[in-house]
Amino acid sequence: MSDLRTRLSEEVGLAPWSMLRSHAERGGLLFVDPSLDLVEVALAVGEDRSEDVATWMAKDLLSRPTAEQMAADDDRDWTFVIVQPFVFVRGPQIS
Question: Would you state the pLDDT for residue 68?
Answer without folding.
Answer: 84
